[in-house]
Amino acid sequence: MNIYGASGHGKVVYDILRSRNIQLVSIFDDNTEIEEFMGFKVIHKPNEELLKTPTVFAIGNNVIRKQVARRFTGLFSEALSHASAIISPNIECDKGTVIMPGAIVNSGTKIGKHCIINSGAVVEHDVFLEDFVHIAPNTVITGNVNVGEGTQVGTGTSVIPGVRIGKWASIGAGAVIIEDVPDFAVVVGNPGKVIKYLNE
Question: Is 125 an annotated catalytic residue?
Fold first, then answer.
């Protein structure tokens, strides 16, 4: 398998591969200043043969991850999870998603394409995460929550049951979300309050 993204996030994705005994074939990155990654030479212009190998996108930024996914439609791998993650057999998880060490994903949850469930995060039952969502470390998403496309839920956030979080929103670290969040909103605090909109 290939990794696209020679970054800190890429190091954790590489650990996922190793935890599953999946061989890393090559590492790609657009940044020509990065020449080496975890002992591998970084490839800046992959050839057609390499692009036939399933690839996981190790890009933490949701906007950039979506842009890269559009460039390489069909290249991405099936969902990947670290061996230490606890995942119900009764979930649906689309291509390109990565589930990090110690994360928990419970029954009835549906996860879209190219999401990140980061280290130690808890995603409870019947949650729906749309494409390109990032659930940061130690966040707790309780039951029946919907998180819209491209939203970043910051480290240590807690979301009460039944809340709808809109698309491309940004939830600050440690926030407590007790009511619905509009699209593009930036929310911080306990309880969470909208402080601005990203499309303003």
Answer: yes
Judge if pTM exceeds 0.70.
yes
Residues linked to residue 193 through DSSP beta bridges, in sequence order: 188
CATH number at 30 reads: 3.40.50
Q: Of 1, 118, 106, 10, which is closest to residue 50 (Cα–Cα)? A: 1
SS3 71: helix
Residue 188: HSE in the Cβ half-sphere, 13 Å Cα cutoff: 6
Report the alpha-carbon distance of residue 83 to residue 88 in Å, rounded.
13
Name the active-site residue from 44, 82, 125, 134.
Answer: 125
Number of domains present in the structure of the chain: 2
CATH number for the domain including 179?
2.160.10.10
Q: Summarize pLDDT for 72-128 with one digit per residue, the tens.
A: 776 777 899 999 999 999 999 999 999 999 999 999 999 999 999 999 999 999 999
